Amino acid sequence: MQIDRRGLAALGVSVLAAPAIAATATETTQVRAAMDKFAALPAKASGLVSVQSGRTKWEVAHAPEARLFVGSAVKTFILAQTLRDVEAGRLAEDAQRPIDDTVRSLVSPVFDNLTGTTQLRNVLEAMISHSDNTATDAALAACGVDKVRTLIAHAGLTQTQISNSTRQLFSYLAGAPYGVDLGWDGMKALQKGKSFGTPRAALNDVETMASTAREMVTWYQAALNGAYFAKPETLIEYKRILSMADAIPQGVPPDIAAYGKGGSIDWNDFHCFAFAGQMIPSGAKVTFHLAINWTGSADGVQPMFSAYINAASGVLIAAQKAVS
What we know:
Layout: H1 25-39, E1 44-53, E2 56-62, E3 68-69, H2 75-87, E4 96-99, E5 116-119, H3 120-129, H4 133-143, H5 145-154, H6 166-173, H7 183-191, E6 210-211, H8 213-223, H9 232-242, H10 248-251, E7 258-267, E8 270-279, E9 285-295, H11 301-323
Antiparallel strand pairs: 1-2, 1-9, 3-6, 4-5, 7-8, 8-9
Helix pairs in contact: 1-11, 2-4, 2-5, 2-9, 3-4
């Protein structure tokens, strides 16, 4: 077993100021071809690109309603709720948060061997920029998973699900009962191959990180339009941190402003890559979600990752050209 990472207000606010005008065939042909190439990957694929350029709005999709495991892509919801708590005065970004074995989790390139306290701002940046799972569980401890789920429900996202924490996710997948946290000692034992029961599928209806392309695009269109924040400075901070995601330089064409989060997992023979967000080429808003799930041996992960990056970036490059 391997667990790995590469790179987890109302919807009525409109993203259009005027009635939409359909795109021409010329604008969508290359994007459609690129999406078809993405869909042809030897995996279960789901993709959606939604473009708003002036009064023109159009989209290209492949299986956008398919519910897939998306891993750390769901951390965008944790970031949003934590910042909502900051703007409401319940939390402060410059307040110290503990980093210790109570929140330490697997796949934590920033905080793995550190113990002490750090500003909440650093926690949020580590969660997004390096997908640090210890940072994720520290952020969830600060804002509360129930509040994040309430935000998801408020956004109308019925197919989107986050785990209680990354540690409880790993515990559940390893066979522990729902709601059980095996603790840091359990995580270390799990990393060494210890079994805690019958392993479970990463994509399930109990403890998982899942969504659809339609719901992730809907979320980003509204969130990046300020729908869930009361103050303009909160939206600015949300965008600032999302712009740090390590998936952006791998998937978005160079020199284009972009916001988003990637996700992945290797769990036994199950694997996932996902990338969702929005890029702003030539003043247009290109909101996207591109994800694959598949089963296969560990030695096939790196070739699939290369193929995924090539296909996903190809879709975004085609979208950039369509609006330029």
